[in-house]
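Justification of computing resources. Each target in the renewal requires a structure prediction run like the one illustrated here; the chain below, 361 residues long, is used simply to show the kind of job we budget for.
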Amino acid sequence: SAVAITGCACSRTKTQRRHAAHFTFQPDPVPSQYGPTQKMNLFQSITSALDNTLASDPTAVIFGEDVAFGGVFRCTVGLRDKYGKDRVFNTPLCEQGIVGFGIGVAVAGATAIAEIQFADYIFPAFDQIVNEAAKYRYRSGNMFDCGNLTIRAPWGCVGHGSLYHSQSPEAFFAHCPGLKVVIPRSPIQAKGLLLSCIADKNPCIFFEPKILYRAAVEQVPEDPYTIPLSQAEVLQEGSDVTLVAWGTQIHVLKEVASMAQEKLGVSCEVIDLQTILPWDIETVCKSVVKTGRLLISHEAPVTGGFASEISSTVQEECFLNLEAPISRVCGYDTPFPHIFEPFYIPDKWKCFEAIKKMINY
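Resulting structure tokens:
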């Protein structure tokens, strides 16, 4: 009803007034090794990667709900006009069908780039991803595969997304061998990692932090380039505590590291995991051996979240190096709330308190 719609819009405006973003985006240094750069936000860097792919690979196709007119987040804007409606086209509102079609396209030898309009709505396609795409190569003894399939989806909290538009479902897919799961923190990373996913010969899920689509702006190379998958990046070296995250939460932890240095004199090493599956155990464990302390933070609920896997592995590998229990600062075990989002997210204050506990342990 009109009343319901008005009420919804009104509450959203109030929510946006009530609290500012829980982080400040700090751009990475301008990369010089990939040629000329251009100022792009995150969704434009995605468009640039897709444009490069369509230009260089005549078999590449992009499909999903609303992608033909540019998509709800504008990631495919202009591509149908440039490459034609046979290569960039809308699908019915059916996630199972989108991924099932993508598997068929990839098995036939073409490059399939599927968009699921929100990561929250990837679950109808769960069977196709987990039971078909991930297992195709294995079950055929490598006679057939759908490694040319990349599934993109907007992911993570956005400030007013509530229970159906703010979820972070990466841990569901991290339990499934045969997939790669990747989450970038910035426009430069997004383009390089997406091009790596598209080129990779395994089905990849590429989650795009939707709050960063417009908030994150960097100088991004115009030409194609790749960033290796399954390699974490040490963004800041430190000696006292290792901080691990991915996507949006990296920007929270960078602020936490500054606070810890300023208020406590504590030196933090900040690591962006980048690839959730298969993840870079070596980089994380090497850091923990040095610092003796580990904090992992993500927006998804704490129970069964990917922080659990990291914590368990580090405890097995670095037990004698640990100076304090590993800390997980994550979302609560509830559906994602609307007006209570500021209390739900693992903000810098929660992470800062966890560091104080570890240092004083």
